[in-house]
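Researcher: First entry.
Model:
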Amino acid sequence: MTESDLLTPAAPAPDALDALHAFVERHPRLFVLTGAGISTDSGIPGYRDENGAWKRSPPITLQEFTGSEAWRRRYWARSMLGWPAVGFAQPNGAHRALARLDSAGYVSALVTQNVDGLHQRAGSHGVIELHGSIGHVHCLDCGAQYTRASIQPLLEANNPEVAGAFAAPAADGDAHLDFDGNLPFAVPACAACGGMLKPSVVFFGENVPRERVAAAAVALDAADAVLVVGSSLMVYSGYRFCAWAQERGKPVAAVNFGRTRADPLLALKVEASCAATLEGLTARLMPRFNEHEEHAGQRPDTAADTARSGGEPPRTATNTDIER
């Protein structure tokens, strides 16, 4: 446990939770924007500290990955050791609380900067994944698609010396491995054409697909307010939605420990655990729902569930400034 873990409040102050509850009651159709901080309780490290600074060097860029075999070997070696932290991660209380709010109709759109898929596993619908999914891999030559889980056994079987190494997990399936890309390492290739495989995520230096940003912008127009959860918003790919909300006269609230780029724009900020805060919020908004779940072990059907069950797939838009 680090010093920052000890300083991070586990639960929000009662007056802060009161204020968030009142905010949602006044603005019941939320555009929710999540970042890496919502998944740290699931064992997936974040990228930034409480001041919004990088905890390590920035991730690999698209140009490095596609332009250098050594960089690709380094990427896949680290990914082989870091993947289990994401592949076996389970949704935490914050993901489940948002799924409850979604089922009750409080979430008009859920846009995430994360690539871990935990919102979907928790039961949220129509999630817009700005930066893609680390759970999928595709061929840059023929377009063939694979699950990331199917690539892992190949990596381990073909690289037994590295597979036995220990490396602490890093953000988004990376690992803290000081691997020399000039050393031998068997990089996975497309089974269909032998082409270059790339994880289906937006790398630094790569644009967010235009349709994703466009879809999120449409969703923002339909919302009453923005709720940011677990993001420092230090790069434009997430921050822009807060700026656009202000231009449209929509208030912005945030649940995040530490500084965010949008602090001057916030109508409300709760500096506490994402899970404790959102669980406390759902308990106030839906006491009977939470009581039912606790005793029955499942959520009740609601009109919102029915309406969302046939919802449209995620839509979105673009930018070269990528944040995890």
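Researcher: Second entry.
Model:
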Amino acid sequence: MKMKGKIKFFNTKRGYGFITGEDGNDYFLHISAIESFAGVYPVSGQKVEYGEIYDAPKGKEARHVVLVEQ
């Protein structure tokens, strides 16, 4: 099941940021989790869909992320 949210922020130099899900929770986002990454980094407020939440050592992490709009 695809979940939806928005980019809270993304640090392009470090390659990570956070998504705020429709459920109100924040999820860690690593650049490697973005499907078909083509060098266009996500920006704050950008809509995303993600297919999995992984229990990482430091919290919840989104996987299989698709950037919906710029």
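Model: Note on the second entry: The longest strand covers residues 47-56.
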